[in-house]
Specification:
The protein is mainly β and 237 residues long. 15% of the residues lie in helices and 41% in strands. It has one domain: Inosine monophosphate cyclohydrolase-like (Glutamine Phosphoribosylpyrophosphate, subunit 1, domain 1). The longest helix has 11 residues, at 197-207.
Length: 237
């Protein structure tokens, strides 16, 4: 697999939709994740990220303009002990509840599938980071329609044990803009991860399409201590 330049992947794609990147900092000391949302409709763009305990949730920027909250208001990030869950929908809660009952990441998602927003049938993308006793691993998942056919759900899980310093993986909902929007294909993209949370945050935000980007969350977690730093950027202010 060829390592992709994350800045280029973002800047050359006007509409990757929602995206998750997870990896390890170049110095090997931090577990890294980023999650962004984009929007084409007024309803999708009318959102901000707000902190909610150790995680975040989406919230309507202008409540008077909120039309349908079902697929846009959710908690993208939740923390369960030494696990950080990052997703593009309310399956965050499904994973949290399942893993709290000792189910695996993959088992927890068995009761979910892609979003019911035909003709796009937006994939559900999810990630979980596990830090324990100075060790770190992560997994990513995508649940998608069978090439646009909602009669079948294709489930893919990718697990990364002992990830390499300076490397990560990037998965997003759509290959590119279109009508209907084409679902992501293949493995999560292999990308480079830096050391500085502010540089990483700025790189992501700067390279997202200016018209379509909505909000960005970034977290660096110290693998030795579990302490973390978080950055949130909202286009709506």
């Amino acid at each position: 697999m060829e390592m992709k330049n994350l800045a280029t992947e973002l800047s050359e794609n006007a509409y990757p939709g929602r995206g998750i990147v997870i990896g390890k900092s170049a110095d090997g000391k931090k577990a890294v994740t980023g999650y962004f949302i984009m929007g084409r409709s007024e309803n999708s763009r009318n959102r901000v990220f707000v902190e909610d305990g150790e995680g975040i949730r989406t919230q309507a920027f202008d409540p008077s303009k909120l039309v349908d909250p079902s697929l846009i208001i959710y908690a993208p990030v939740r923390v369960l002990g030494n696990k950080t869950i990052v997703t593009n929908g309310d399956q965050t809660d499904t994973i949290y509840d399942g893993m709290d009952k000792q189910l695996t990441f993959e088992q927890s998602l068995r009761i979910r599938e892609f979003e019911p927003d035909g003709p796009n049938y937006t994939p559900r993308i999810s990630g979980v980071m596990h830090i324990e006793n100075g060790t770190y691993n992560y997994a990513m998942s995508i649940l998608k329609s069978n090439n646009g056919n909602p009669e079948a759900c294709n489930r893919y899980t990718f697990a990364y044990e002992n990830p390499v310093a300076g490397e990560g993986h990037f998965i997003h909902t759509y290959m590119h803009d279109g009508n209907p929007l084409p679902s992501f294909e293949g493995e999560p993209k292999w990308v480079e991860i830096g050391n500085d949370i502010d540089e990483f945050t700025d790189m992501l935000w700067t390279n997202l399409n200016e018209e379509n980007k909505v909000s960005l969350f970034v977290r660096f977690i110290d693998i030795a201590t579990g302490k973390y730093e978080t950055r949130i950027i909202n286009k709506n202010k």
